[in-house]
């Protein structure tokens, strides 16, 4: 659209493919960050992180050649802001827009795009530009957008070969050191550059870049086009020059350079990197910083969140750049206050943070001391040996060998003996909470300990954005692994001379891939510490697997260590109290030999033998020892099978510990076992009768002593060692307990645990009777809407019934108290409510049917219990909630499939997110969404093959991707809209097919669009092969005379929300209105229309209805054509232009231009030719289009490129004029070099043709065009001395408004009139002087013909003008010119010196007095000299300068005709006015002269 004036630039939702786009623009920016993509890149996609769910674009399934691009959906700027958040949800994280403005709130963010495709699947690129051209265009555009603030600091962020464009652009800017200051300002304002995988080095840089370009082509999957690359890249000589110049430029200007290098290779290159490390740096450590990004070449510049550790590296790099830029102080984000920082720190803590460490028994008093004397341990602590092992000690041993006990002993000893050094530790626990067995939990624990030991390190959190806080001041976000790793690394690097000792136990109890990444992180920290002299020591322990190679590390294996064997002996002597007889000593010797270094085996056997001894069976000890198997697995088997008493309790206890969804507390496990073995005894917990001691004995008996309580605040029951779990699940231990369960132990276990939960839910709870009564009375819950969760707001169950509201619990305090009562009296209730469906899901997955469970399940009772236990109101359900909705929210795909077979359709209404599928989408439950989209009867219908996994079906992930990407749009749509209706209105063909294939969607529906009164009715008369509904009708509820106004509001609304199919039907609806059909006829043509799935189907429908052609007026067709242009519908444009060409006169030319720019870029020449053909026959339209083409101000494809294509497709440029001004003149004035070249090459034009002001193209180019245009015009024979009506020649304009190069170019022209005067008497020299253009004045003075003493109409010479402007630089140049009249008088008789003194211009006076030919005693017409004027104005410094001239006349006064004041000499004036110091100086000077 055209715009008047210079409004504040608009922020775009998606950057333009070509040119500069504004991404973020704060109120008062003081920094510009500019992103530049690489070859074959894109200003958005290069920097866009799509995430796991978004990895496959929904657009990929479309195969409609006439479909308009998705980015054209955002046709109006007024809708861009409202779409920004929606676009983010659909397309992933575009970090220049979504992350950087938060990290740099004062930065204006821009993205530059250019056409540099390395290859094409269907043919070569049509771009004729090289890197030099891209850089030049970039420089000019950047200067234009920064013209109001040219000194604002600049930071460039470039990816891959885009870094070459940035360097070339800066080289061009740097070359303007003495001219074109506006272009020079770019390099002067540059603070630094961040390169992502940019190739810099190499003896043959062009060969290197060709290789890199080929690698990039392979990586993105396009055919490498060698010819294209050769045309893009500069010569090897130019590249070497660029490589060699960047260093000196950076040092001179103080640029800070940060080179990020790719850490991973790519599969397409057999694991090799696209740009190797040796090439992706400048190779000058004093100039640059290098750092690796943990990704490949394409992924290294894409980040998913603020917490992404790689993103934090970039933010840190920018922050390092800014303070170095000439002392520049760029406002930074306000530091965290205490509450914000403490919220981050508190959020690192989790309930089980010390669980494993606390549960490990302390070492026996006589064990572990041997380690302190081992050379391996001593070397690990010795600072002088750190280079040998980088601070690494790894203790390994078999399961149960005592590694954890040993590390706990080491930790305790170090805390007592090494003071002043922070000691942090973490003990992995595979049997615990997810935080206890994950590296996320480890980093959280280690960071918390670091911040508590060394509070100064808390500053490492400052790289994070401001934390989202709850009303109580708690951090509401979630920690990401990448963020934790980055903060931990920064904190360790800042540890300083304090040093650090870090102990991590049981690496084998964490996921292997996570452990490998963690070890690599610690290894890098160890290397860095060794290189920098920091004392960082790391101690790991694990079993002998997984084996992870570490370059430098001390390894200590417990088995076979003499000290370890002595520890076993010490423990045995201390704990096995069976006397000291010869037999007993023999038993101890046998026992010690059989330990095989396994401490746990010894502990368990000692307990068994001690029990036998305590029973008085001393004689049986030796036999019992013989019966005990030698290994841990055999020992566990013996323990579990030797006593068959209470076998069912044992099995259920093991099942709960193995398969519970979370570790159970003592009281939870007690009632969980009772719920499965003795449900008749269930009821409220009587704590006086069933004490913790009773529960402990019960659990100990059920588990045969293989379980223990964790020693934490919230104690849970776990196996005594991870080897117990390994024995049961991996060692086939279950076969020895229940052989019949082996076939499906997991499924049968979950089935039994589900029944336990169900039994517990069935017990009566008197406290809930009021709620039950409310439900039975038919009270329904309020419909809950999506929104922020609130703590116990309102009631648990309530309804509106007339004027009465029933409430079971009405106050916050009531619901909180009830929840606490239930949790204390019914300890297992919370687990049973929250996980009964999870166990049913797990059982169903293994093939155990759940029909009976679903049929018998008391949903009302479960709902009431769930609502009481839920703290937040939005998580509660109404009494009418369906199981399908619950399964969708809980992400239970197997139960969803099962339930779908029983319900009539999936669009069951109610609850917060209206229907189940929308709930699954809101929670991003991908597995649940896939279950909803599976086709019906997939086992029997050949059209829908079995879909065992998402990866085996191409359609499933695509539809799921569409829903996840468009989550925000879908949820913001009207609540009565089903997902199917939303898909129809958007025209999501694949999703519509998938939903219809389920057989569980409601097809017949009628909804009203918000605010506009349009009813969309979907009906299905028959089904075709693709299961597409065959009929759709749209009716307007408002009066028919208002229909057109609604139409113009509805179209942008539909396009803004992506309702493409609705958009097409609205156009067809409008056609019916414009046709003035009767209401019955209108209804008939609207109802007899199939879904218009593509733009082509819309135009086909228009072609089929031949009765429209003669009945629609030209203006009506113009309205439709405007819609086609504005919303980028090429088929509609083609159809209307072909059949109604006169409608072009009714279309805003701006809309046509936007359309042409987009479709020229797409090479859509058919549409282009149609529009051109009509433009050639319509002079008015042609002129409007030409003027807009030339005067376009915002970024667009190259005007020259568009012009070439327009001309190639028939556009008539020959003789074209705009308002009587030749096209050549317009193009020359508008800096359209390519268009000028095109006109001169292919059109017959008079190069000296004048406009109405008598100006030629050369004059206009000199005034506001480009140097390139001037060269082309001069080469074409332009007259360099041609004067316009004002008498100005091209040199006049160049001297006053142009750049130095223009003046230099014209001065080299043969027979140039360098002294040409305009109507005001100004020569080019006088104009340059008035413009204070030193460089231009210097160029003009170098010309031998220039007359430096020519006067203007006011009698001023160039020197007089320079003095008046106080321009000492220009005056100095003029005074150096031979023949200059330094004493020339203006029309008032004032010389340059007198003018300088009267103007109090001390530097100018000094400059003039340095030239002896300047007359110091010259007088004005009144006889007043320079000294006289200086004394009258009390100008001490100027008087001193004048008195330094030996020829100064001290008595110089005024003639007799002047008044009495003027008659006085300078000395008399000084005395009369009291200028004592001046008088003294004058008297001294007079005495000196008299003495001479």
TrEMBL record:
Alphabetic keyword roster: ANK repeat, Repeat
Lineage summary: Eukaryota, Fungi, Dikarya, Ascomycota, Pezizomycotina
Compositionally biased intervals (Basic and acidic residues): 60-70
Region of interest (Disordered), residue spans: 46-70
Organism in which the protein naturally occurs: Cladophialophora yegresii CBS 114405
SUPFAM superfamilies linked to this entry: alpha/beta-Hydrolases, Ankyrin repeat, P-loop containing nucleoside triphosphate hydrolases
Each ANK repeat, start to end: 1253-1285, 1286-1319
Listed InterPro entries: AB_hydrolase_fold, Ankyrin_rpt, Ankyrin_rpt-contain_sf, NPHP3-like_N, P-loop_NTPase
UniProt-listed Pfam families: Ank_2, NPHP3_N
Domain Nephrocystin 3-like N-terminal intervals: 367-543
Name of the molecule in the record: Nephrocystin 3-like N-terminal domain-containing protein
